[in-house]
Amino acid sequence: MMKKSHNCRHLLNSLSDYIDGELNQSICDEIDRHLKDCEDCRVVVNTLEKTVYLYHETAHQQELPVDVKKRLYKKLELEDYLKG
Amino acid sequence: MYKSSGSSTELSLELLRKGDKSEFARMVETHSAVVYRLALKMLGVEQDAEDVLQETFIKAYKALPNFDGRSSLSTWLYRIATNEALMILRKRKGKAAPLSIDEPLEMAQGEMEPLQIVDWCCMPEEELMSAETRHYLNEAVEMLPHSLRMVFLLRDIEGLSTRETAEVLELSETAVKTRLSRARLRLRENLTGYFLDRMAETIPANGGG
């Protein structure tokens, strides 16, 4: 039990790279093997992936507010280039 | 996908270096929204974000003749913006507590992040994407220490690569990965707590006593 939990903690720091697919093959295989047998770590991986996904999905590409843009162009003396 | 789209035609570094006003206007048009968004998420205050926005392009205009083009224009601009934002954060904290993107954030040996194991992935999509959840997502980012927040914003919100993020923040790629990992784990932890509460609210109480 202690050993397993130690192993989970050890893997924890690699999970971010793991979900980005940025780990070398041997560590990736090690994590895959571990995940097969460890429900807890599967939950952590799934919720970690979902966390990143939610932020990606909600990162709205908001435009610059019109008044902020106007003041910026004025400050930079670019008013002639201000479109519509 | 969530990466900011560039302008239709590449900006000319040559013209920019010469101080060409029209090309500079195109650069402002292309990059101002991201600079403002980054500053706003770093600082949380609209007026401060606007100051950063203006200051970034004023400094960029002055520095462009000497821009060596080793990093991309966007990376360079984000670096100016990040430094401006850091300056404001420093002012807020006061001189007594100097603050740097390099501040140590390693935990003492043996110390561990808390870890809740609850699977909330099965929550309905409308719950995961609700206005309330979005609000909480923003709050959770604001709770991150700024050294983690900056990395998270650049990598996961603005979609920069590890390398680009490293260039903006003048950190090693390893440091970027470590901080991103820590930021994501903390956010996961906070969201788990949040969704745990939501699950408790949405699951109907069925008798039991």
- Could you name the CATH homologous superfamily of the largest domain in chain B? RNA polymerase sigma factor, region 2, helix turn helix motif
Given as residue ranges, the uncertain stretches of chain A (5+ residues, pLDDT < 50) are none
Q: Oligomerization state of this entry?
A: heterodimer
What gyration radius of chain A follows from the Cα positions, in whole Å?
23 Å
The main sheet of chain A comes to: none
How many distinct helices of chain A?
Answer: 5
Beta strands of chain B, count: 0
The most extensive contact between chains is: A-B, 36 and 49 residues
H and E string of chain B: HHHHHHHHH
What do we call the CATH topology of the largest domain in chain B? Rna Polymerase Sigma Factor, Chain: A
| Alpha-beta classification of chain A | mainly alpha
Number of domains of chain B: 2
For this entry, give a set of tags.
heterodimer, A: 84 residues, mainly alpha, 5 helices, 71% helix, B: 209 residues, Arc Repressor Mutant, subunit A, 2 domains, 9 helices, 64% helix, 0% strand
Task: Tell me about this structure.
The complex is a heterodimer of chains A (84) and B (209). Chain A is mainly α. Chain A has one domain. Chain A contains 5 helices and no strands. The longest helix of chain A is centred in the middle third of the chain and has 20 residues. The model of chain A has no long low-confidence stretch (mean pLDDT 88). Chain B is mainly α and 209 residues long. Chain B folds into 2 domains: 81 residues, RNA polymerase sigma factor, region 2, helix turn helix motif (Rna Polymerase Sigma Factor, Chain: A, Orthogonal Bundle); 78 residues, Winged helix-like DNA-binding domain superfamily/Winged helix DNA-binding domain (Arc Repressor Mutant, subunit A, Orthogonal Bundle). Chain B is built from 9 helices and no strands. In chain B, α2 packs antiparallel against α3. The N terminus of chain B is likely disordered. Chains A and B meet through α2, α4 and α5 of A and α2, α3, α6 and α9 of B.
